[in-house]
Every structure is written in C-alpha cells, then in structure tokens.
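A favour, since you know our structure tokens better than I do. Could you add the entry underneath, on a fresh line?
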Amino acid sequence: MKKKRLFEDAVHGIFLLLGLVTVGCVLIMTVYLILSGIPAIKEIGLFHFLFGKEWASTASEPQYGILPFILTSIYGTAGAILVGVPIGFFTAVFLSKIAGKTIRTAIETAVNLLAGIPSVVYGLVGMFVLVPGIRKLFNIPDGASLLAAIIVLAIMILPSIIKVSVTALDAVPREYEDASLALGATPIETYFKVSVPAAKSGIAAAVVLGVGRAIGEAMAVMMVAGNVANMPSLFQSVRFLTTAVASEMAYSSPGSLQQNALFSIALVLFLFIMLLNATLNFFLKRKKEN
C-alpha cells in the first residue's frame, strides 16, 4: 500500500512538473516578446504603429504602420474559416454517421495525408496551380492574392477540423441516437439535432484548432499571397502578420528599429491569438454552463 502511494505521488509530481514546464515556456515567450517589442512601439508610437497604413522598413524615411497586416490576417483567417469549417464539419458528420467502412477508411487516409503534408508543399502547389488558375479565371494581372491565401488556408485547416470533429461525434453514446430514432426522428434529423449538439464542445475545439492553424501559417501564405504590404483586397497581393516577420527578419540588422518593429509585430500577433482563444473559450464555457 505504501509503495503504491509513493508511486502515485511520483507520477503526480512528474505530471505537475510537465505542466509547469508548459506554463513556463508560455511565460518565457510572453516576457521575451514584451521586452523585445515594446521599445519599437515606444519609438514609433502605438497609434502610428497599429493604425498606420504604410510599411516601408528599408526606405530612406522608414514607415512602420501595420494596419494592412492586421486587416489581412483578420480577413484571411475569417475567409478560411468560412470556407473550411462547413466543409470540414459536413465531412466529419458524413464519416462518423453515414459513410461505410471502406469509404471512411479511404477518406480518413486522405485526411491524414493532408495533415502530414509540409506547408511548403501547399505553397508550391498553390504557386504553380492555384495562382495561375485564379489569374486566368478572373482575368487579373497576378493571381497571387488574398483569395489564393484563403483557399490554401481553408485546405490546410481541414485535417484538424475533420479529425477532431469525427472523434467528438464518435464519442456520442449510441443510446442518444437510438432514443431519437425510436421517437420517430429520421437519421438525418438525429445526426444534426442529437449527435451534433451532444458533440458541440469537441466540434468547437476543432474550430479553435483550425483558427490557430490559419492565423499562425506563414510559409504557404507567403508563397501564394504575393507578400506585398497592401491594404487587403480579394484580388490583390497582400502580406500577413506572420509573413511580415518571416520575410524581413533574416536581413534585419540586430538591434535596429526594423528588427525591433518585427518583434513588435510578433507581439501583436501573439496577443491577437491569446485574445481570440480567450474569447472563444469564454463563449464556449458560458454556453456550456447555460
């Protein structure tokens, strides 16, 4: 009995230590970004930095306005969610409740392959297939645009949404569906009025994961969006917050205002993701309590 107690205490201590390591990593990143990003914001000015419409970090008179990056990230993420979430949700319902074993295995294999494809491969396919297709379809000078980024991001978030949603739907007790069918509901009514509401917390978690993937993606977006600091437009080259940091950090001088401004962009992105996750979790918990 004493040995069992000691073993349980040891396992508890290990889990506690791992949890503290995770929290510590978040705190270290937060402190580092704040210390690195605040100086540039002070020098540039908070209002000019957040609401300035021009970014020209290498010009003779540098400008450090990131409003185009903020709006592009918001529009791009929202567009990817509007396109990807319905497709992922209905695919998950089909796989969990309707598809036969053979079809489900084939589609799940394809979804797993999508999840394992590197971002740069998505970017290459988008650059050589999607971008020329948009250019020809809409008869515009350049297909590298916000629309291309939205489509690529929508495809990239599908595996997260589908896999987590399928797991949540599979966990719904069979008795719920049997009771609904016994009361005269059709299978489709049962799936969408009984199974989906019962699995809504898992489906919501899938959406949160998709949002995080869409906001944080850099490489694929950089390759299909044009990476130009324009105000967001569906058929115009744009630059996201992530790509702004990735594209200029390599050649920025250590300790320069340009590099500090890039750290400030990273800080804004970090706070934006934290705020979004906190907001989503707040509404999910509130709905669950109600």
Remarks:
- The first strand starts at residue 55 and ends at 56.
- The chain has a mean pLDDT of 87.
- DSSP finds twelve helices and two strands in the chain.
